[in-house]
Amino acid sequence: MKKKFIYLNTIIILVIIVVSIFGDYFSPIEMKFQYWWSTKYFEWKMLSILFLSFAFFSAMISLIDIKNLKYISKFSRVFFSLNCLLLLFLIYNFTELYLTTKIELTKRENELIKEAKRDIKDDNVTYKFAGGLQLPMYSQKNENSIDSIRKKYGIKYVNTGCIVDLVEIQAQEKYSETVKSYLEKRNGKNWEYKMQTEIENIKRDIR
After folding, report:
1. β-strand partners of 128
2. For residues 82 and 73, what is the distance between their CA atoms, to the nearest angstrom?
3. Each residue's pLDDT tens digit in the chain (207 positions)?
4. Confidence (pTM)
């Protein structure tokens, strides 16, 4: 029985660590897992403090006489119970985060689909991106020429600032999907390549 709880405690500690590292990736937001980033910025210190606190609390409770159990048996049981509570809390927390993010994402996607339909009607498709403060690479005249080419193809780009909102970035995909068939019908196949070629010709003349 003593060995059983030692194994159980080892397993649940490993599960807690795995859930803590991968929990953020249990999300409706598509994120590429980055091992280096996830392990470096993982709250190792906080988790270590929790485990040590549980161990101390378990040691104190185990001093109480319970069913004539040996001290190590009482300690293992209490420590396991506390770790189970922590695991349940983490699962609840990440599940709640998932549902909240899903609701927010769905709402924003629906808003952008409606916005895309309005922009199609106005022949004014607008792609938004977060790019921060950009220094002008070309003269205002050349920038206007590039904007004119994009306008000819019925699109424009708007920099929304330096704040990166993952929900907004993913929701913008719905906007792009909604306007895709319209732009292809309006401009013909391979219109993006044609537009980019015209823009590159302007940039080449500048150099």
Report:
1. 158
2. 14
3. 567 878 888 999 999 988 887 777 777 887 655 544 455 556 778 888 899 999 999 999 888 887 777 888 889 889 999 999 999 999 999 999 899 999 999 999 999 999 999 999 999 999 988 765 554 555 667 778 888 999 999 999 888 777 778 888 899 999 999 999 999 999 999 999 999 998 888 877 655
4. 0.74
